[in-house]
Queue: 2 jobs
Job 1
Amino acid sequence: MDAAYAVDLESVWRIYRRDEFEVRALENVTIKIPAGRFVAIVGPSGSGKTTLLNLIAGIDHPISGRVAVGGEEITEMKERELARWRARHIGLVFQFYNLIPVLTARENVELPLLLTPLKKTERQEHVEAALRVVGLADRMDHYPRQLSGGQEQRVAIARAIVTDPTIVVADEPTGDLDATSAEDILTLLRELNRRFSKTVVMVTHDPRAERHVDEIYRLDKGVLIGIEPGKGATEARAATSS
Amino acid sequence: MKYAMLVLKNLTRSKRRTILTVLSIAVSLFIFSALISMPAVVNQFLADSASSTRVAVHNKAGVTYGIPEAYKQRVVATPHVVAATAQSWFGGIYHEVSDQFPNMSVDPEMVGETWPDWDISPQALHDFQRVRTGALVGKETMKRFGFHVGQQIMLRGTIYPFNVTLDIVGVLGGKAPPSFVIFRRDYLEEVRGRPGFVDVIWVKVDNSANIPQVSSSLDEGFANSSSETLTEPEAAFYGGFIAGYRVFFQLAELMGIVVVFTIGLVAANTAAMSIRERRTEIAVLRSIGFPAHTILSMLLAESLIIALAGGLLGCGAAYTLLKLVSVQGVVGTIRMPAPVLFAALGAAALIGLLSALVPAAAAARRNIVDVIRAVA
């Protein structure tokens, strides 16, 4: 197990059974994503992008192969152990934000911290820091219905990063947003990656993502068909050299 | 404790549904606790007032047939008998038909010895033996009608075609049935024209171990007479006396249970709907790292809080109503005994836990990916 890789999938197969049909979501996929990268997984609908992301997030299991995240093999973990592992290592961002509507932004972001031994005051400090990072320090006590889609997604990102996870996984984070908000969210994810060296793995259909990410992993019909550099890596190199 | 915020916030998710669920449970437990209180009061009466060393001697054919008052002399002379007091039912009412309480006449001489557990004061006993129209009144009846010692009251006959005028000389305390009124049998006999028959002879035995011996001795002694007797312990006597009401009580209990069961099904449906609406949120919580058992506990806690709130509301309303209306039962005013309160709250807790258990357990264990995919 190589700890230099944030994500290390080897010969992973995932097959679903839908009634009498067998769906090959992933076929013999091997992917190694180095730590500290911002990568996009792209491909047409049904190509297995979300399945791959679910395996990395530890909310789904392969039928064969090996999944290691943050240097820890999760393939054989039991559900209770996986839940603990997710709480420690994974920050999840969904397309539809999935905030709890009866909780304020502050309380939504605090949710993952309830699973830690932190005291109330310490939890509040972490929550405020996370909301400041996503630019919502002035919206802490707003309910999701009082926020725009872009702001809701920022709260969701704050919830994902508040525990300082090993890796942030985002499933179509711009899929439900207008162009401006989508650009803002991509910029925010890139900032998280650059400023805090956070590994970000994102499934997307959004062509704007290419300008932000370091690598693009292209899937088709459950098979990894290529890895291309994103423009984010070039921009980062240019910024470093200048 | 840190999850309490989440549980309480979820309760406010749909205020109207929460309030309606609380109210439906409250109404069912109001009915349940009110109905269950009736038999519970009777059972409590038997447990509280029946003495283990007191027996009732009455006609073997039934209390209403009576036995000769002369039997008392033979009863008193029986070994192990400490005291005996003859009693005849009067069954009068105070002003209105609704102003009912158990009232009967007794021989005044050995009241203190026959019912030492009734805590009748020496002065009251003395006055009862001295004043021919004297009456001893239970605490509850004193309070209910605002009676006081020295007051004269008139009971209207319902069995007999005459009234009796009584002077209250004392209060029945201790384990005396709180609604009872007793007055002197010689006064009743005089008004009746001295027929020489009594309903029951109450017998105080020196030791409960001697009751079988005394009972068989008395019943054998009066065998083959014109009025054969049946001697039975006080609890059995009262139990038989109110046996006619048992079917009604059982029906009341059954109705109470049916109402609670029905509302349990309604609550289960409501809980299932509420949890189904939140299945995505539950999946998200699990994806964040919340263990299934924590989510299950939070969902059950929500349901439990709603059910207990309904239970407290329903029981509180039933308790208050029974106290205010002062429903008069066979053996006294129907109040909600503590065991009924606990049983009703236990029923509420069961409704809360069982109604949410199945949908909550299913939601807490459902495959996260399936739920999120279904929504996306």
Job 2
Amino acid sequence: MTDSSSVDATLRALLADVLGLGEDRAAALTGDSGLFGELPEFDSMAVATVLTEMEDRLGIIIDDDEIDGEIFETYGNLLAFSLRKVTG
Amino acid sequence: MSEYRLRIDPAGTPRATILIAPPLFEEANRTRRTLVLAMRALAAEGFAAVLPDLPGQNESLVPLVEVDLVRWQDAFAAVASGIDGPTIIASFRGGALIDHRARAAAWWRLAPVGGGSLLRTLIRARVSADREAGVTSSLESLQDEARTAPLLLAGNRLSPAMIAQLGASEAQAAEPLRSIGLGADGIAGTPLWLRAEPSEDATMAGAIAADIAAWSKTCGIN
């Protein structure tokens, strides 16, 4: 799971599952698409669910020191964070 | 104290009773409607289906802070022992953490999850809510706090015993057991238990009922 396109696909599927986006909306997410604060479904419980699912599906451990508001600002930020974790 | 339970009966004598161990905490709300649709589909196949409230959940009068996993296992075993005829336990997600001490002819589990994973999500929701409120907390600080006092996690006031048991808990062996996930080798559908806003899936409910009915037959329960 180090290929960036597979991380991207995993992340889109995960957001579709947690936020109920449906495949079309998940596929339409771009780097600039807003998440927390933009999508009404993305509340603090959804943030928590996304983090735990990222750990399970990407095989990473996320320390809460690493989490700041910026990571969930846009899809691009979340993808960049995930890629750093997976390759780091 | 007796807890509320939802029971759907088939026309005529049931072939067997499907006793459902529901997902825990918020995941139970997100899946309830689909579970009940699966129960109706099971009744159409000739099974009785029972969905009990766990003490401290749903309509229970017991304060959640007074219960822990051991009490849930006891309560679930007590419901199973009150059922006449063959019983098949169908557990969903965290329900698999409380189903192994009940007496049954067979077990069926969908997407069983470790208690540690459920607890991590609950604590993270609290950290995230704290951050929005301008309070600094962390997984470690909250887990330390939970050793001596109850902790309010995403609306659930959990005792130190519950938090300790949950953190260490994994699904236990049961025999005969069919344990499956979502996808090609399991049930076609999406993980509704993760969904921020509750949804329902009648097709998935039908697939769940069909798989449980097939497993019943495999186990020689007709």
